[in-house]
Structures are given as structure tokens and as C-alpha cells.
Backbone:
């Protein structure tokens, strides 16, 4: 069921192929939105412990980027990574199981929201360290190049990572070695509790340009534009043309973390889903291209049911044991030891 | 038995590992064309090519971070950091990323990477090119920490580190690179975590590792002239460390001195002394003594450097204390 979200939905008889593709994008974005809003409720109820960093209003970025990815590709994410992992096709059951701290979760209850990973689909982990995932994606791109497997690596990072030294070093190395690395900067305007303008003196496209890295800035709330740009860049990467950087300009709707009242934000009124909602925009576009409202509503009902089923499955998950966790600090002892 | 220098044993281990496994790659500043700042990677670029032997810019954070991602994606990277002191720039990749990946991702991830770190003083290299920081890494769950003392172990343990499925901090002492020792044509490989009794003796156990092993031998020979027989246990790895071999030695000698070049306070010797005081309490006939560097940054001037570096004279004084 959840695996199905990776595939484009079978298209309605009256829709063009483009509309069918867009319905698939809509389903993935709606899955992220519904999952995150459900997580916000679970957090408020005390059923989702720890820190949650939601990406509500930013769903078009990972869904658009993931449309350009193949099964062999790899992805490194950041602390605001729910959208990245769901767009990559991770299972909702194990996603909720992890965030609700259960033994059957993706990390067996050891990572939580900031560390969802699934090596079997090339998801190299969300990351609790700002900018920490960028060198990991860089190294994954190096592995793809050494192995000559035609795969690419994606590094998702926010504007908050632009001031990190590891990012600057990674840009230089990726350019020097012409690595198949797609750098995706989700610029939501806020670095934790400070505006980007107070944190970063340059512009990310100029920064990439300083290293000779092809870069584009675009409306990150337009999923079709993100998907087209990502496909174009991914093609160049697979052709060995070196790294590319995509700045996706979006908005952070909710707090840095759940529970953040955002009293520091003068732009709060403007940054609302009423002003710029990537889902509403895609929905309007679908209706304009002749898709029936009933087809969209059917997707929404199906996704809502899937999310609810995943939450219920997660509630039934078992608490992890520390003995099992301790056994995974190191790998099993090598045979000749 | 054939002889070799330490650096050549390390070089042979890297070359043999690369020949045996195409996923082994080398990363580091000047490891390629220049052959490595200490000559350890000499000849490997021409043998294996620049896809697998990568000269990197001076970007420790990105290089070690990239090794983590490469290790998660099918490679076995071996990174050389020119001096152990410079590893401070790569600590996020080692401590927050590599060390935790397996645990944090539910046992489903593996980070088979090696970070080679030259440590040690005695070369007047000064405060930022001499430190022995191994205790930092032994304190981080998820890392293995290896420090060979002999030429043969330089080969054997580096091969084991490269084959290991977990991230390994591999520490080499700069003072040893040009020293010679025995290296068999076909060294017997062994896993990480096994200490050896380097020199048997009935009176006092000296637990040590790395370049301090040879200094302990000098002290032991001097004490033997007085009829005091020191047993030297070479730990070979600090994480995991071979508690059973140490306890067995203490059960024979009933006296323990821990000896290392790292500073004494909160150093590796503190952990070993504490464990033996607990698990080996009934065997002890004397206090446990640590002989290690004073709590000071390593100095530059030869006169200061010699006062800082714990050598045979300090160890002999320590042995006398446990025999009082």
C-alpha cells in the first residue's frame, strides 16, 4: 500500500499523460502533508516524543526532486527530513513506528524523526547536524563515480546550512572531482530562529558559481517546475558533467520545531498556506487541465486512510529493548577474530 | 625473518588490501603524487590509478564526511589525516556520523572506513603536531581504536582495520615510521581487540601500546639487570581493549603499571586502572600506577620535549613505586 506511493497513479480516462503525472505528484505531496499534520497532533498528545521539525508547505521540493531519481540513486537529508524520506518511498508504517519510538521502526527506536534512514533504498539518513548530510552525499557521489554505476547522490539542505564550513568544502570537492552530486537547497527563509539575511552574506547561486557549479534558483512551491529542473540536472549529472545546485525557494510555515510559538517572526501572517500552498497550487492546476475534483478527492481519501492505518499500526508497535540497541553499537565480530 | 620499516609495512598493507578488494580507496592530502607526507602511500597512485588514490584539498571535514557517505555506498575508504592534531576539523563526521550510523539506523547501516592518524611527540613538532588524542575516540561508542607497536602489527592491524565493518581510528606513531622490524612474507591476519604479551616477566605487569612498547622494553632490560622481571602487555587496540589478557597478566604478577605517551589525566590508563581495580581487585598486591605525559600541551624545544615525553626512566621510577 505505502510502497504504491512511489508509482504514478493509473491515469483517469479523461486526463492527459501530464495530468496523470501531476496526480502522482499530488498524491506524494498530500501523503507528506497529511503525515506531518498527523504527527503534529500526535506530538501534542504526547505520542511522538522528542523534537519534530515539520516541513509543512515545503512538500513540492522533495516530491519534485524525487521524480528525477532512480532506484540506484542515494539521498542524504537533514533534520527537517520527513518529506525527503516519504518522497523517496519509505514505508509509512515504519516511519510512524520510528517517530513514535517503537522497536519495529526504521531505526528500531534509536533515531527518531531526525534520523530516519533506509539503506536498502539509498536513503542515507536524515541528520541532526546542520550541514552534516552534505559531505555524506558527497562521498556517496564519489562511490557512484568510482563504481561507475550511473547513479547520482542528492544532498538536501536548508539555507541554515549555507554558513557551515563543511558545505563550502563539499562544493569545492564536488566541483574538483566532477562528482554526480545534486545539491538541493531548500531556502525557507529561516535558519532556526533567525532570518537567512542575518546568517548568510552571499547568494547560494553565486556561491555555486564561484566553484563553476551549474545552479538555478526557482519557485520551490511549484512542484512541476522543481521536477522539470531536477530531471534536467539529473540528466547532466548522469552524463558526467559534474555537480549541480538547485535552490528551491519556499516558506517555513510552522516553527523551527513543534511547540515553537514563532514570536520572533514578523512575516508570520504572510507565511501561511492561504498565501502560498504548493498543494493548493497543484490542485488548481489539475482542475484547470481537466482533471475531475472527484479524482483528487479520491486520492486524498486514500492517503488519509493509509496514514491513519500507519498511525494505528505504530500505536500497536512494541517498545524497544536496550539490550537489542546495545548489540548494534558494533557489527558482529568478524569471523577470524 | 625479512625486515622492513614501519612505513613500508603500512604501504604493503594498503597495497595488498587494494589488490584484494576493488572497493578500497585512499583519500588524503598528498597521498597520491607525493606519496604521502610520511611516505606511507608511495607508489600506490601509479599502481592503482587516480580513481582509487585521491589527492584531496586541505578539507578534513568534507574528506572524512565523504568517507562516511562512500562507506555507506559500497566503498571501503582509507583516509589519511596528515597529523592527528588536525582531526579536530573532522570530528563531526567521526563522532556524530560514522560512530553512530549502525546503532542510530537500527543496525542496518555499516560504515567500513579507516581514518589513519599519525600521533606522537619527540620530534620537536610543537603543540599542534604532536598530540596523542586516542582517549577521545576510545570514549565514543561505535568507534574502534587501533595503535600498532611493531612492524608486523602495522601490517596485520591495518589489514584488519580495512576489513572491519565498523569505523576504525588507526593511530600510527610518527617516531616509528623509519624504524625497522621483522615482517614475515605472509603475516597471519587477526581481528581487532587482542592484546599480546610482548615480553613475559613475573614481577610487574606494564600495560602499554604503540611506540611506548619499545620504551617499555628498554626499561624492562634495565630492570632485568637488577633481577626485576617486567611483563609487557601490548594492547594493540584501545577500543575494544583486551581486558582478559591484562587481568591474566595481573593474576601472575599482582602488580600493574600503565604506561603511555598520551597525557595522564583522563587518559587510556585511567580506564585500564579503574577496570583492573574493580575486576582484578583480589589479585593486586600494590597500588596501580600510571606513567604518562604530564597534563600539558606538547612543547617544542628539545629540552622541553624530552621532559614531556614519558620514557624508560619515568617507567622505571613507576615500576619501583609498585614494588615498594
Residues:
Amino acid at each position: 500500500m505505502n510502497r504504491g506511493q512511489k508509482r504514478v497513479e493509473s491515469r483517469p480516462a479523461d486526463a492527459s499523460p501530464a495530468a496523470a503525472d501531476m496526480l502522482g505528484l499530488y498524491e506524494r505531496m498530500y501523503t507528506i502533508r497529511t503525515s506531518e499534520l498527523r504527527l503534529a497532533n500526535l506530538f501534542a498528545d504526547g505520542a511522538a516524543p522528542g523534537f519534530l521539525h515539520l516541513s509543512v508547505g515545503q512538500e513540492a521540493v522533495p516530491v519534485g526532486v524525487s521524480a528525477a531519481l532512480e532506484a540506484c540513486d542515494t539521498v542524504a537529508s537533514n533534520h527537517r527530513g520527513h518529506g525527503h524520506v516519504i518522497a523517496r518511498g519509505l514505508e509509512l508504517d515504519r516511519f510512524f513506528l520510528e517517530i513514535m519510538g517503537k522497536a519495529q521502526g526504521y531505526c528500531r527506536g534509536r533515531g527518531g524523526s531526525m534520523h530516519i534512514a533506509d539503506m536498502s533504498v539509498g536513503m542515507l539518513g536524515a541528520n541532526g547536524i546542520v550541514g552534516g548530510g552534505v559531505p555524506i552525499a558527497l562521498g556517496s557521489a564519489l562511490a557512484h563515480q568510482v563504481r561507475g554505476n550511473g547513479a547520482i547522490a542528492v544532498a538536501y539542505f536548508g539555507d541554515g546550512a549555507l554558513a557551515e564550513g563543511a558545505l563550502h568544502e563539499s562544493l569545492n570537492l564536488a566541483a574538483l572531482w566532477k562528482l554526480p552530486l545534486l545539491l538541493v537547497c531548500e531556502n525557507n527563509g529561516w535558519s532556526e530562529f533567525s532570518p537567512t539575511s542575518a546568517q548568510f552574506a552571499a547568494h547560494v547561486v553565486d556561491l555555486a558559481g564561484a566553484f563553476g557549479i551549474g545552479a538555478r534558483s526557482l519557485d520551490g512551491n511549484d512542484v512541476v517546475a522543481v521536477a522539470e529542473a531536477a530531471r534536467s540536472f539529473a540528466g547532466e549529472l548522469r552524463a558526467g558533467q559534474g555537480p549541480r545546485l538547485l535552490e528551491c525557494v519556499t516558506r517555513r510555515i510552522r516553527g523551527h520545531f513543534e511547540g515553537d510559538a514563532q514570536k520572533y517572526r514578523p512575516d508570520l501572517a504572510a507565511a501561511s498556506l492561504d498565501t502560498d500552498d504548493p498543494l493548493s497550487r497543484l490542485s488548481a492546476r489539475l482542475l484547470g487541465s481537466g482533471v475531475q475534483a472527484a479524482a483528487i478527492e479520491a486520492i486524498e481519501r486514500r492517503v488519509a486512510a493509509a496514514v491513519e492505518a500507519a498511525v494505528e499500526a505504530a500505536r500497536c508497535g512494541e517498545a524497544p529493548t536496550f539490550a537489542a540497541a546495545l548489540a548494534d553499537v558494533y557489527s558482529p565480530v568478524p569471523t577470524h577474530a | 625473518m625479512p625486515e622492513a620499516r614501519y612505513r613500508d609495512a603500512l604501504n604493503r598493507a594498503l597495497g595488498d588490501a587494494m589488490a584484494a578488494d576493488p572497493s578500497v580507496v585512499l583519500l588524503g592530502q598528498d597521498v597520491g603524487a607525493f606519496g604521502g607526507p610520511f611516505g606511507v602511500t608511495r607508489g600506490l597512485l601509479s599502481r592503482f590509478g587516480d580513481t582509487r588514490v585521491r589527492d584531496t584539498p586541505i578539507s578534513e571535514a568534507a574528506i572524512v564526511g565523504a568517507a562516511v557517505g562512500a562507506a555507506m555506498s559500497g566503498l571501503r575508504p582509507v583516509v589519511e589525516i596528515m597529523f592527528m592534531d588536525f582531526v579536530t576539523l573532522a570530528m563531526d563526521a567521526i563522532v556524530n556520523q560514522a560512530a553512530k550510523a549502525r546503532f542510530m539506523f537500527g543496525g542496518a547501516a555499516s560504515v567500513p572506513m579507516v581514518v589513519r592518524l599519525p600521533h606522537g611527540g619527540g620530534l620537536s613538532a610543537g603543540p599542534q603536531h604532536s598530540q596523542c588524542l586516542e582517549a577521545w575516540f576510545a570514549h565514543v561508542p561505535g568507534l574502534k581504536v587501533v595503535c600498532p607497536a611493531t612492524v608486523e602489527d602495522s601490517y596485520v592491524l591495518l589489514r584488519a582495520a580495512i576489513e572491519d565493518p565498523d569505523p576504525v581510528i588507526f593511530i600510527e606513531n610518527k617516531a616509528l615510521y623509519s624504524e625497522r622490524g621483522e615482517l614475515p612474507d605472509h603475516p597471519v591476519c587477526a581481528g581487532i581487540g587482542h592484546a599480546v604479551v610482548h615480553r613475559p616477566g613475573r614481577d610487574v605487569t606494564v600495560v602499554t601500546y604503540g611506540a611506548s612498547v619499545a620504551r617499555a622494553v628498554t626499561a624492562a632490560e634495565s630492570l632485568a639487570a637488577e633481577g626485576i622481571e617486567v611483563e609487557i602487555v601490548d594492547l594493540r587496540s584501545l577500543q575494544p581493549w583486551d581486558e582478559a589478557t591484562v587481568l591474566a597478566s595481573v593474576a601472575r604478577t599482582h602488580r600493574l603499571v600503565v604506561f603511555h605517551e598520551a597525557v595522564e589525566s583522563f587518559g587510556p590508563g585511567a580506564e585500564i586502572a579503574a577496570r583492573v581495580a574493580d575486576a582484578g581487585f583480589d589479585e593486586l598486591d600494590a597500588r596501580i600506577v600510571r606513567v604518562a605525559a604530564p597534563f600539558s600541551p606538547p612543547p617544542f624545544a628539545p629540552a622541553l620535549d624530552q621532559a614531556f615525553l614519558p620514557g624508560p626512566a619515568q617507567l622505571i621510577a613507576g615500576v619501583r613505586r609498585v614494588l615498594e
Q: What stands out?
A: The longest strand of chain B covers residues 256-263. Chain B touches chain A through 52 residues (CB under 8 Å). The CA atoms of residues 132 and 262 of chain B lie 5 Å apart.
